[in-house]
Write a structure and sequence with these properties.
- It is a single chain.
- Strand 16 and strand 17 form a beta hairpin.
- Helices cover about 30% and strands about 20% of the residues.
- The strands form five sheets. A ten-stranded mixed β-sheet has the order 9-7-5-2-10-1-11-15-19-20, with helices on both faces. Strands 14, 16, 17 and 18 form a four-stranded mixed β-sheet that branches. A two-stranded antiparallel ribbon has the order 3-4.
- The longest helix is centred in the middle third of the chain and has 22 residues.
- With about 425 residues, it is α/β, with parallel strands linked by helices.
- The structure holds guanosine-5'-diphosphate, 6-O-phosphoryl inosine monophosphate and magnesium ion.
Protein backbone atom coordinates (compact mmCIF):
# COMPACT_ATOMS: atom_id res chain seq x y z
CA UNK A 1 0.00 0.00 0.00
CA UNK A 2 1.07 3.53 -0.57
CA UNK A 3 3.25 6.02 1.18
CA UNK A 4 1.99 9.57 0.93
CA UNK A 5 4.25 12.59 1.26
CA UNK A 6 3.00 15.88 2.71
CA UNK A 7 5.16 18.99 2.20
CA UNK A 8 4.94 22.74 2.60
CA UNK A 9 4.86 24.67 -0.69
CA UNK A 10 6.20 28.03 0.52
CA UNK A 11 8.38 29.14 3.47
CA UNK A 12 6.67 27.08 6.16
CA UNK A 13 3.65 27.52 8.42
CA UNK A 14 1.21 26.67 5.65
CA UNK A 15 -0.91 24.48 7.92
CA UNK A 16 0.85 21.13 7.55
CA UNK A 17 -0.12 20.14 11.10
CA UNK A 18 -3.78 20.65 10.43
CA UNK A 19 -3.63 18.72 7.14
CA UNK A 20 -1.81 15.81 8.80
CA UNK A 21 -4.34 15.78 11.59
CA UNK A 22 -7.15 15.75 9.04
CA UNK A 23 -5.76 12.62 7.44
CA UNK A 24 -4.87 11.07 10.80
CA UNK A 25 -7.93 8.85 11.10
CA UNK A 26 -7.19 7.20 7.76
CA UNK A 27 -3.47 6.59 8.12
CA UNK A 28 -1.63 4.07 10.26
CA UNK A 29 1.80 5.70 10.53
CA UNK A 30 2.87 9.36 10.48
CA UNK A 31 6.60 9.85 9.97
CA UNK A 32 8.52 13.06 10.53
CA UNK A 33 11.44 12.84 8.12
CA UNK A 34 13.40 16.08 8.43
CA UNK A 35 14.12 19.02 10.71
CA UNK A 36 13.64 19.03 14.45
CA UNK A 37 12.15 21.35 17.01
CA UNK A 38 12.57 24.31 14.66
CA UNK A 39 9.13 23.27 13.36
CA UNK A 40 5.90 24.43 14.94
CA UNK A 41 2.77 22.64 13.78
CA UNK A 42 -0.53 23.77 15.23
CA UNK A 43 -3.52 21.49 15.49
CA UNK A 44 -6.85 22.79 16.74
CA UNK A 45 -9.32 20.16 17.84
CA UNK A 46 -12.96 20.87 18.65
CA UNK A 47 -14.06 18.87 21.70
CA UNK A 48 -17.53 17.37 22.03
CA UNK A 49 -18.50 20.34 24.21
CA UNK A 50 -17.58 22.67 21.36
CA UNK A 51 -14.46 23.91 23.18
CA UNK A 52 -11.35 24.30 21.02
CA UNK A 53 -8.12 22.65 22.19
CA UNK A 54 -4.92 23.93 20.62
CA UNK A 55 -1.77 21.79 20.38
CA UNK A 56 1.62 23.09 19.19
CA UNK A 57 3.91 20.27 18.09
CA UNK A 58 7.58 20.90 17.49
CA UNK A 59 9.54 17.69 17.42
CA UNK A 60 6.77 15.12 17.40
CA UNK A 61 4.85 14.27 14.21
CA UNK A 62 1.35 15.80 14.18
CA UNK A 63 -0.15 12.32 13.86
CA UNK A 64 0.60 11.74 17.55
CA UNK A 65 -2.78 13.30 18.40
CA UNK A 66 -4.65 10.51 16.63
CA UNK A 67 -4.88 7.43 18.90
CA UNK A 68 -4.82 4.89 16.04
CA UNK A 69 -1.62 6.33 14.50
CA UNK A 70 1.90 5.08 15.19
CA UNK A 71 4.07 8.21 15.14
CA UNK A 72 7.67 7.84 13.96
CA UNK A 73 10.67 10.14 14.21
CA UNK A 74 12.66 9.14 11.14
CA UNK A 75 16.41 8.95 10.57
CA UNK A 76 16.43 12.33 8.79
CA UNK A 77 15.34 14.20 11.94
CA UNK A 78 17.62 15.90 14.47
CA UNK A 79 16.43 15.22 18.02
CA UNK A 80 16.85 17.42 21.07
CA UNK A 81 16.29 14.83 23.78
CA UNK A 82 15.34 17.35 26.44
CA UNK A 83 12.66 18.77 24.13
CA UNK A 84 11.48 15.28 23.17
CA UNK A 85 10.69 14.37 26.77
CA UNK A 86 9.26 17.79 27.59
CA UNK A 87 6.91 17.54 24.64
CA UNK A 88 5.91 13.97 25.51
CA UNK A 89 5.26 14.96 29.15
CA UNK A 90 3.21 17.97 28.03
CA UNK A 91 0.99 15.78 25.85
CA UNK A 92 0.65 13.08 28.50
CA UNK A 93 -0.48 15.71 31.00
CA UNK A 94 -3.23 16.64 28.53
CA UNK A 95 -4.37 13.04 28.23
CA UNK A 96 -2.72 12.16 24.89
CA UNK A 97 -1.42 8.59 24.65
CA UNK A 98 2.15 8.84 23.33
CA UNK A 99 3.19 5.27 24.04
CA UNK A 100 3.36 4.18 20.40
CA UNK A 101 6.12 6.64 19.43
CA UNK A 102 9.12 5.11 17.65
CA UNK A 103 12.44 6.89 17.14
CA UNK A 104 14.98 5.88 14.50
CA UNK A 105 18.28 4.58 15.88
CA UNK A 106 19.99 6.54 13.10
CA UNK A 107 18.45 9.95 13.83
CA UNK A 108 20.99 12.51 15.01
CA UNK A 109 20.99 14.14 18.43
CA UNK A 110 21.19 17.89 18.97
CA UNK A 111 24.04 18.08 21.47
CA UNK A 112 23.97 21.05 23.88
CA UNK A 113 27.08 22.59 22.28
CA UNK A 114 25.25 22.80 18.95
CA UNK A 115 22.50 24.90 20.49
CA UNK A 116 25.20 27.27 21.73
CA UNK A 117 26.93 27.30 18.35
CA UNK A 118 23.69 28.12 16.53
CA UNK A 119 23.19 31.21 18.67
CA UNK A 120 26.77 32.49 18.65
CA UNK A 121 27.13 31.93 14.91
CA UNK A 122 24.06 34.05 14.27
CA UNK A 123 25.44 36.79 16.49
CA UNK A 124 28.77 36.58 14.68
CA UNK A 125 27.07 36.91 11.27
CA UNK A 126 25.45 40.18 12.37
CA UNK A 127 23.62 41.75 9.43
CA UNK A 128 24.20 38.60 7.37
CA UNK A 129 22.39 36.36 9.88
CA UNK A 130 19.87 33.76 8.71
CA UNK A 131 17.37 34.41 11.49
CA UNK A 132 17.43 30.79 12.66
CA UNK A 133 15.21 29.45 15.42
CA UNK A 134 18.32 29.02 17.61
CA UNK A 135 17.57 25.36 18.27
CA UNK A 136 20.92 23.99 17.07
CA UNK A 137 19.53 22.63 13.82
CA UNK A 138 22.22 23.90 11.40
CA UNK A 139 25.27 22.88 13.47
CA UNK A 140 23.78 19.41 14.08
CA UNK A 141 23.19 18.75 10.37
CA UNK A 142 26.68 20.14 9.69
CA UNK A 143 28.10 17.57 12.14
CA UNK A 144 26.12 14.82 10.39
CA UNK A 145 27.60 15.73 7.02
CA UNK A 146 31.01 16.23 8.60
CA UNK A 147 30.74 12.74 10.13
CA UNK A 148 31.20 13.92 13.70
CA UNK A 149 27.53 13.70 14.70
CA UNK A 150 26.02 11.86 17.65
CA UNK A 151 23.24 9.43 16.78
CA UNK A 152 20.41 8.09 18.91
CA UNK A 153 22.06 4.64 19.01
CA UNK A 154 25.25 6.15 20.48
CA UNK A 155 23.38 7.05 23.67
CA UNK A 156 23.30 3.36 24.58
CA UNK A 157 27.04 2.80 24.42
CA UNK A 158 28.91 4.98 26.88
CA UNK A 159 32.35 4.21 25.41
CA UNK A 160 31.31 5.12 21.87
CA UNK A 161 29.42 8.19 23.06
CA UNK A 162 32.47 9.42 24.93
CA UNK A 163 34.69 8.95 21.87
CA UNK A 164 32.26 10.79 19.63
CA UNK A 165 31.74 13.72 21.97
CA UNK A 166 35.53 14.02 22.41
CA UNK A 167 36.03 13.95 18.63
CA UNK A 168 33.39 16.64 18.06
CA UNK A 169 34.64 18.87 20.86
CA UNK A 170 38.30 18.68 19.80
CA UNK A 171 37.51 21.17 17.05
CA UNK A 172 34.38 22.82 18.41
CA UNK A 173 35.93 23.95 21.66
CA UNK A 174 38.67 25.69 19.71
CA UNK A 175 36.00 27.48 17.71
CA UNK A 176 33.88 28.31 20.76
CA UNK A 177 36.78 29.73 22.73
CA UNK A 178 39.10 31.23 20.12
CA UNK A 179 36.64 32.53 17.54
CA UNK A 180 33.45 33.12 19.45
CA UNK A 181 35.12 34.05 22.71
CA UNK A 182 32.73 31.92 24.72
CA UNK A 183 33.05 29.00 27.17
CA UNK A 184 34.28 25.58 26.09
CA UNK A 185 31.83 22.68 26.46
CA UNK A 186 32.84 20.07 29.06
CA UNK A 187 32.83 16.60 27.53
CA UNK A 188 31.98 14.96 30.88
CA UNK A 189 28.88 17.07 31.37
CA UNK A 190 27.70 16.53 27.79
CA UNK A 191 28.11 12.76 28.07
CA UNK A 192 26.40 12.73 31.45
CA UNK A 193 23.45 14.75 30.16
CA UNK A 194 22.97 12.56 27.08
CA UNK A 195 23.29 9.34 29.08
CA UNK A 196 20.62 10.54 31.50
CA UNK A 197 18.00 10.06 28.77
CA UNK A 198 19.05 6.50 27.85
CA UNK A 199 16.68 4.46 30.02
CA UNK A 200 13.59 6.39 29.01
CA UNK A 201 14.61 6.45 25.36
CA UNK A 202 15.51 2.78 24.94
CA UNK A 203 12.00 1.29 24.47
CA UNK A 204 11.16 3.82 21.75
CA UNK A 205 14.18 3.18 19.57
CA UNK A 206 13.78 0.98 16.49
CA UNK A 207 14.99 0.24 12.98
CA UNK A 208 12.19 2.44 11.71
CA UNK A 209 13.00 1.92 8.01
CA UNK A 210 12.39 -1.80 8.54
CA UNK A 211 9.20 -1.17 10.53
CA UNK A 212 7.92 1.01 7.68
CA UNK A 213 8.78 -1.48 4.96
CA UNK A 214 6.84 -4.16 6.86
CA UNK A 215 3.93 -1.77 7.38
CA UNK A 216 3.76 -1.00 3.64
CA UNK A 217 3.96 -4.71 2.81
CA UNK A 218 1.06 -5.30 5.21
CA UNK A 219 -1.07 -2.78 3.31
CA UNK A 220 -0.84 0.01 5.89
CA UNK A 221 -1.07 3.70 4.99
CA UNK A 222 2.03 5.72 5.78
CA UNK A 223 2.07 9.52 5.78
CA UNK A 224 5.45 11.24 5.58
CA UNK A 225 5.08 14.68 7.14
CA UNK A 226 7.62 17.40 6.30
CA UNK A 227 8.85 20.06 8.65
CA UNK A 228 9.62 23.44 7.01
CA UNK A 229 8.91 23.75 3.30
CA UNK A 230 10.08 23.86 -0.31
CA UNK A 231 11.74 27.29 -0.19
CA UNK A 232 13.49 26.43 3.08
CA UNK A 233 14.96 23.22 1.59
CA UNK A 234 18.75 23.24 1.73
CA UNK A 235 19.03 22.33 -2.00
CA UNK A 236 15.93 23.81 -3.58
CA UNK A 237 15.17 26.74 -1.30
CA UNK A 238 16.35 30.34 -1.17
CA UNK A 239 19.87 29.39 -0.09
CA UNK A 240 21.52 30.51 2.19
CA UNK A 241 18.27 31.68 3.82
CA UNK A 242 17.05 28.12 4.33
CA UNK A 243 17.04 25.45 7.00
CA UNK A 244 19.70 22.74 6.90
CA UNK A 245 17.60 19.74 5.88
CA UNK A 246 15.79 18.34 2.84
CA UNK A 247 12.21 19.49 3.30
CA UNK A 248 11.01 18.57 -0.20
CA UNK A 249 9.54 15.26 -1.36
CA UNK A 250 12.94 13.73 -2.13
CA UNK A 251 13.91 14.21 1.50
CA UNK A 252 10.94 12.10 2.55
CA UNK A 253 12.68 9.03 1.12
CA UNK A 254 16.18 9.64 2.46
CA UNK A 255 14.78 10.83 5.79
CA UNK A 256 12.65 7.74 6.36
CA UNK A 257 14.25 4.90 4.42
CA UNK A 258 11.14 4.45 2.26
CA UNK A 259 12.14 4.13 -1.40
CA UNK A 260 10.65 6.48 -4.07
CA UNK A 261 8.90 3.55 -5.75
CA UNK A 262 6.60 3.22 -2.71
CA UNK A 263 5.38 6.82 -2.81
CA UNK A 264 2.06 7.16 -4.61
CA UNK A 265 1.10 10.72 -3.83
CA UNK A 266 2.62 14.04 -2.90
CA UNK A 267 0.36 16.53 -1.17
CA UNK A 268 1.56 20.13 -0.88
CA UNK A 269 0.09 22.62 1.54
CA UNK A 270 -0.23 26.13 0.10
CA UNK A 271 -1.37 29.08 2.18
CA UNK A 272 -3.74 31.41 0.27
CA UNK A 273 -1.15 34.15 0.85
CA UNK A 274 2.55 33.98 1.75
CA UNK A 275 4.47 34.23 5.02
CA UNK A 276 8.09 33.93 5.99
CA UNK A 277 9.92 33.91 9.34
CA UNK A 278 13.57 34.90 9.48
CA UNK A 279 15.71 36.65 6.90
CA UNK A 280 15.88 36.30 3.12
CA UNK A 281 14.22 37.46 -0.09
CA UNK A 282 10.41 37.60 -0.34
CA UNK A 283 9.10 39.25 -3.55
CA UNK A 284 5.45 39.73 -2.52
CA UNK A 285 6.20 40.96 1.01
CA UNK A 286 3.90 43.80 2.13
CA UNK A 287 5.12 46.50 4.49
CA UNK A 288 1.79 48.33 4.41
CA UNK A 289 -1.71 48.00 5.87
CA UNK A 290 -2.39 44.95 3.73
CA UNK A 291 0.54 43.14 5.35
CA UNK A 292 -0.77 44.10 8.77
CA UNK A 293 -4.25 42.91 7.74
CA UNK A 294 -2.87 39.47 6.80
CA UNK A 295 -0.80 39.24 10.00
CA UNK A 296 -3.71 40.18 12.25
CA UNK A 297 -6.44 38.25 10.46
CA UNK A 298 -4.28 35.18 9.93
CA UNK A 299 -2.72 35.36 13.45
CA UNK A 300 0.70 35.18 11.83
CA UNK A 301 3.04 34.87 14.79
CA UNK A 302 5.61 32.05 14.91
CA UNK A 303 4.51 28.87 16.70
CA UNK A 304 8.10 28.17 17.77
CA UNK A 305 9.69 31.56 18.45
CA UNK A 306 6.64 33.87 18.64
CA UNK A 307 8.21 36.18 16.04
CA UNK A 308 5.74 38.15 13.87
CA UNK A 309 5.70 36.47 10.47
CA UNK A 310 6.46 38.57 7.39
CA UNK A 311 3.32 38.58 5.20
CA UNK A 312 2.57 39.06 1.50
CA UNK A 313 0.21 38.06 -1.29
CA UNK A 314 0.06 34.61 -2.85
CA UNK A 315 2.91 33.92 -5.25
CA UNK A 316 2.10 31.24 -7.82
CA UNK A 317 5.59 31.32 -9.31
CA UNK A 318 6.52 29.68 -6.01
CA UNK A 319 3.43 27.44 -6.18
CA UNK A 320 4.43 26.18 -9.64
CA UNK A 321 7.99 25.67 -8.48
CA UNK A 322 6.71 23.57 -5.56
CA UNK A 323 4.66 21.48 -8.00
CA UNK A 324 7.73 20.84 -10.12
CA UNK A 325 10.29 20.17 -7.38
CA UNK A 326 8.02 17.91 -5.32
CA UNK A 327 6.00 16.25 -8.10
CA UNK A 328 2.84 17.47 -6.36
CA UNK A 329 -0.30 15.46 -7.13
CA UNK A 330 -2.67 17.37 -4.81
CA UNK A 331 -2.70 20.77 -3.17
CA UNK A 332 -4.43 21.77 0.03
CA UNK A 333 -5.04 25.53 0.02
CA UNK A 334 -5.25 26.79 3.60
CA UNK A 335 -6.52 30.01 5.18
CA UNK A 336 -8.79 31.05 2.33
CA UNK A 337 -11.00 32.57 5.05
CA UNK A 338 -8.25 35.09 5.85
CA UNK A 339 -8.71 36.70 2.42
CA UNK A 340 -12.40 37.43 3.06
CA UNK A 341 -13.27 41.14 2.97
CA UNK A 342 -10.81 42.39 0.34
CA UNK A 343 -12.02 44.40 -2.68
CA UNK A 344 -9.60 42.61 -4.93
CA UNK A 345 -7.30 39.67 -4.25
CA UNK A 346 -3.90 39.93 -5.94
CA UNK A 347 -2.01 36.87 -7.17
CA UNK A 348 1.63 37.21 -8.20
CA UNK A 349 1.86 35.40 -11.54
CA UNK A 350 5.39 36.32 -12.65
CA UNK A 351 8.35 38.53 -11.71
CA UNK A 352 9.91 41.53 -13.29
CA UNK A 353 13.67 41.29 -12.82
CA UNK A 354 15.39 44.43 -14.05
CA UNK A 355 12.88 44.81 -16.89
CA UNK A 356 12.78 41.12 -17.88
CA UNK A 357 9.69 38.98 -17.19
CA UNK A 358 10.30 35.67 -15.38
CA UNK A 359 7.53 33.09 -15.30
CA UNK A 360 9.71 30.59 -13.42
CA UNK A 361 11.81 31.01 -10.29
CA UNK A 362 14.98 32.84 -11.32
CA UNK A 363 17.96 30.56 -10.90
CA UNK A 364 20.30 33.31 -9.70
CA UNK A 365 20.06 34.39 -6.07
CA UNK A 366 20.52 38.08 -6.96
CA UNK A 367 17.72 37.94 -9.53
CA UNK A 368 15.35 36.57 -6.91
CA UNK A 369 16.39 39.35 -4.54
CA UNK A 370 15.51 41.91 -7.25
CA UNK A 371 12.27 40.24 -8.37
CA UNK A 372 9.27 42.59 -8.46
CA UNK A 373 5.90 40.85 -8.46
CA UNK A 374 3.60 41.11 -11.48
CA UNK A 375 0.05 40.81 -10.15
CA UNK A 376 -3.22 39.60 -11.53
CA UNK A 377 -6.15 41.08 -9.55
CA UNK A 378 -9.23 38.96 -8.88
CA UNK A 379 -12.49 40.26 -7.41
CA UNK A 380 -12.88 39.61 -3.68
CA UNK A 381 -15.76 38.34 -1.53
CA UNK A 382 -17.27 39.50 1.75
CA UNK A 383 -19.30 36.56 2.97
CA UNK A 384 -18.10 34.54 6.01
CA UNK A 385 -16.87 31.28 4.47
CA UNK A 386 -15.86 29.45 7.66
CA UNK A 387 -19.09 27.43 7.64
CA UNK A 388 -18.72 26.25 4.01
CA UNK A 389 -18.14 22.51 3.67
CA UNK A 390 -18.58 22.07 -0.07
CA UNK A 391 -16.95 23.96 -2.92
CA UNK A 392 -20.35 25.02 -4.22
CA UNK A 393 -21.15 26.75 -0.92
CA UNK A 394 -18.25 29.17 -1.41
CA UNK A 395 -19.13 32.60 -2.85
CA UNK A 396 -18.65 32.73 -6.63
CA UNK A 397 -15.58 34.96 -6.39
CA UNK A 398 -13.90 32.64 -3.87
CA UNK A 399 -14.56 29.68 -6.19
CA UNK A 400 -13.13 31.63 -9.11
CA UNK A 401 -10.04 32.48 -7.06
CA UNK A 402 -9.40 28.81 -6.21
CA UNK A 403 -9.94 27.70 -9.81
CA UNK A 404 -7.54 30.35 -11.11
CA UNK A 405 -4.88 29.35 -8.57
CA UNK A 406 -5.37 25.70 -9.54
CA UNK A 407 -4.84 26.57 -13.17
CA UNK A 408 -1.70 28.58 -12.42
CA UNK A 409 0.01 26.09 -10.08
CA UNK A 410 -0.56 23.13 -12.37
CA UNK A 411 -1.95 20.54 -9.95
CA UNK A 412 -5.43 19.97 -8.59
CA UNK A 413 -6.66 21.61 -5.40
CA UNK A 414 -8.12 18.76 -3.40
CA UNK A 415 -8.96 20.56 -0.16
CA UNK A 416 -9.50 24.12 1.02
CA UNK A 417 -9.06 25.35 4.60
CA UNK A 418 -11.69 27.84 5.77
CA UNK A 419 -10.73 28.06 9.46
CA UNK A 420 -8.21 26.68 11.98
CA UNK A 421 -10.49 23.95 13.36
CA UNK A 422 -10.20 20.29 12.43
CA UNK A 423 -13.50 20.33 10.55
CA UNK A 424 -13.14 23.75 8.94
CA UNK A 425 -12.16 22.34 5.59
CA UNK A 426 -13.71 21.66 2.20
CA UNK A 427 -12.69 18.34 0.64
CA UNK A 428 -13.05 18.31 -3.15
CA UNK A 429 -11.16 15.08 -3.80
CA UNK A 430 -10.12 12.41 -1.34
CA UNK A 431 -6.53 12.74 -0.17
CA UNK A 432 -6.25 8.98 0.27
CA UNK A 433 -7.10 6.38 -2.37
P1 LIG B 1 2.58 24.32 9.93
O1 LIG B 1 3.91 24.66 10.52
O2 LIG B 1 2.62 24.19 8.44
O3 LIG B 1 1.93 23.14 10.58
O4 LIG B 1 1.64 25.59 10.21
P2 LIG B 1 1.52 26.41 11.61
O5 LIG B 1 0.74 25.60 12.56
O6 LIG B 1 2.85 26.93 12.02
O7 LIG B 1 0.70 27.69 11.12
C1 LIG B 1 -0.55 27.57 10.52
C2 LIG B 1 -1.58 28.33 11.38
O8 LIG B 1 -2.76 28.50 10.64
C3 LIG B 1 -2.00 27.60 12.64
O9 LIG B 1 -2.25 28.54 13.64
C4 LIG B 1 -3.28 26.87 12.23
O10 LIG B 1 -4.16 26.65 13.32
C5 LIG B 1 -3.87 27.88 11.30
N1 LIG B 1 -4.69 27.33 10.20
C6 LIG B 1 -4.49 26.19 9.47
N2 LIG B 1 -5.41 26.09 8.48
C7 LIG B 1 -6.20 27.20 8.58
C8 LIG B 1 -7.30 27.71 7.81
O11 LIG B 1 -7.74 27.12 6.84
N3 LIG B 1 -7.84 28.90 8.23
C9 LIG B 1 -7.36 29.60 9.31
N4 LIG B 1 -7.93 30.77 9.63
N5 LIG B 1 -6.34 29.14 10.04
C10 LIG B 1 -5.75 27.98 9.68
P1 LIG C 1 7.31 24.69 10.12
O1 LIG C 1 7.55 23.19 10.09
C1 LIG C 1 8.84 28.68 9.22
C2 LIG C 1 13.21 29.16 9.27
C3 LIG C 1 13.80 30.04 10.34
C4 LIG C 1 15.01 30.58 9.61
C5 LIG C 1 15.46 29.38 8.77
C6 LIG C 1 16.60 28.58 9.39
O2 LIG C 1 6.54 25.14 11.31
O3 LIG C 1 6.77 25.18 8.83
P2 LIG C 1 16.72 26.89 11.43
O4 LIG C 1 16.47 27.10 12.90
O5 LIG C 1 15.90 25.83 10.80
O6 LIG C 1 18.19 26.72 11.13
O7 LIG C 1 16.32 28.30 10.74
O8 LIG C 1 14.33 28.56 8.61
N1 LIG C 1 12.34 28.06 9.76
C7 LIG C 1 11.01 28.06 9.66
N2 LIG C 1 10.16 29.00 9.20
N3 LIG C 1 8.37 27.49 9.64
C8 LIG C 1 9.21 26.53 10.06
O9 LIG C 1 8.79 25.27 10.36
C9 LIG C 1 10.60 26.80 10.14
N4 LIG C 1 11.68 26.11 10.53
C10 LIG C 1 12.74 26.88 10.28
O10 LIG C 1 12.92 31.06 10.74
O11 LIG C 1 14.62 31.59 8.71
MG1 LIG D 1 4.81 26.14 11.69
Amino acid sequence: MPAIVLVGAQWGDEGKGKATDLMGEDVDYVVKFNGGNNAGHTVVIEGEDGQREKYALHLLPSGILTPSVTPIIGNGVVVDLEVLFEELDGLTARGVDTSKLLVSANAHVIAPYNRTLDKVTERFLGARKIGTTGRGIGPTYADKMNRVGIRIQDIFDEGILRQKVDAALALKNQVLVKIYNTRAAEADRVVEELLSYADRLRPMVADTALVLEQALNDGKNVLLEAGQATLLDVDHGTYPFVTSSSATAGGACTGSGIPPTRVSRVIAILKAYTTRVGEGPFPTELDDDNGEFLRKTGAEYGTTTGRPRRCGWLDVVIGRYATRINGVTDFVITKLDVLTGLDTVPICVAYDVDGVRHDEMPVGQSDFHHAKPIYEELPGWWEDISGCRTFEELPGNAQAYVLRVEELIGARVSAIGVGPGRHEIIERHTLLD
